[in-house]
Amino acid sequence: MAIGKGKRFKVFTRDKFACQYCGMTSPYVILHVDHVIPQSRGGTDELANLITACLACNIGKSNNRLGK
């Protein structure tokens, strides 16, 4: 199930609209909401498990965890 717009906005706001992996900010990159612990490995949609990631950082990591 997709993450709702309200929760997505809360994550972006909390993370100051910046990728938490590389630091790039909107509007210079496309931002996604990423799961710190992937859903395929038991991660949830709780705010504590969601993080802002740019397209480049998020797409390449698949269901692996990346360090901050």
Question: What would your notes on this structure say?
Answer:
The chain is of the alpha+beta class and 68 residues long. 25% of the residues lie in helices and 15% in strands. The protein has 2 helices and 2 strands. The protein has helices at residues 5-14, 55-61, and strands at 31-35, 50-54. It has a two-stranded antiparallel sheet. The longest helix has 10 residues, at 5-14. It is globular, with a radius of gyration of 11 Å.
Q: How big a fraction of the residues is strand? A: 5-15%
Order of helices and strands: HEEH
* Euclidean distance between termini CA atoms: 26 Å
Q: Report the C-alpha radius of gyration, rounded.
A: 11 Å
Spatial order of the strands forming the largest sheet: 1-2
Mean pLDDT: 88
**Low-confidence runs:** none
Class derived from helix and strand content:
alpha+beta
Tally the helices: what do you get? 2
Describe the largest sheet.
2 strands, antiparallel
Shape: globular
